[in-house]
Design a protein that fits this description.
The complex is a heterodimer of chains A (about 110) and B (about 120). Chain A contains no helices and eleven strands. Chain A is mostly beta strands and about 110 residues long. Chain B contains no helices and twelve strands. Chain B is globular. The chains are: A mainly beta (about 110), B mainly beta (about 120). Chains A and B meet through strand 5, strand 9 and strand 10 of A and strand 6, strand 10 and strand 11 of B.
Chain lengths: ~110, ~120
């Protein structure tokens, strides 16, 4: 069966520090991968998506970047965090023909 | 572009009563619609989907959803609510282009089931 992992689960970082969040998927090949941010426990904002290794599309201009160095690994990064980067970050995957999207457990990021 | 709207920020219902969480959609072409549930500090869990076929879709944990094309709605329902159903519910629509699925989510509805 397929599983998706995210780490760390929680993170507290000072303003101006770098960020690296990791997401890995097991049990599937060539998934579509996604990063979302959820602010204030509500709506999801799609940040990045990827259809393959090294292929990243950005939905909104911001202080973050994403990379996909391996088929089932998706990394969210920042060189310098802002207070507004605080939120709950969710990684998700989907396979085109199945239509469904599956989410990881999330990372709670607090920028102080 | 595809979109979904959840007009209720919060729904309150007593345990044992039926519940409805509303969702309306706007799509070009055939709609692919989904419901997800999120418990505090957790990822979203898939509940059910409508792709084609019967307008009444059955999903996990006793939930079902009714697709209504004329009203462009996809409301989530359950005949008898449980306290454990209290959570945040998201409606979503899929836009598929080529080898890529893109999902648009509603703003979420908080369901409170009181004992």
């Amino acid at each position: 069966s397929q599983t998706i992992h995210q780490w760390p689960a929680t993170l507290v970082q000072p303003v101006g520090s770098p960020l690296s969040l990791e997401c890995t998927v097991e049990g599937t090949s060539n998934p579509n991968l996604y990063w979302y941010r959820q602010a204030a426990g509500r709506g999801l904002q799609l940040l990045f998506y990827s259809v393959g290794i090294g292929q990243i599309s950005s939905e909104v201009p911001q202080n973050l970047s994403a990379s996909r160095p391996q088929d089932r690994q998706f990394i969210l990064s920042s060189k310098k965090l802002l207070l507004s980067d605080s939120g709950f970050y969710l990684c998700a995957w989907s396979v085109v023909l199945s239509y469904e999207q599956y989410f990881g457990p999330g990372t709670r990021l607090t920028v102080t | 572009a595809q979109s979904v709207a959840q007009p209720e920020d919060q729904v309150n219902v007593a345990e044992g009563n039926p519940l409805t969480v509303k969702c309306t959609y706007s799509v070009s072409g055939n709609p692919y619609l989904f419901w997800y549930v999120q418990y505090p500090n957790r990822g979203l869990q898939f509940l059910l989907k409508y792709i084609t076929g019967d307008n009444l879709v059955k999903g996990s944990y006793g939930f079902e959803a009714e697709f209504n094309k004329s009203q462009t709605s996809f409301h989530l329902k359950k005949p008898s609510a449980l306290v454990s159903d209290s959570a945040l519910y998201f409606c979503a629509v899929r836009e598929g282009t080529g080898n890529f699925n893109k999902f648009y989510f509603g703003s979420g509805t908080k369901l409170n089931v009181k004992p």
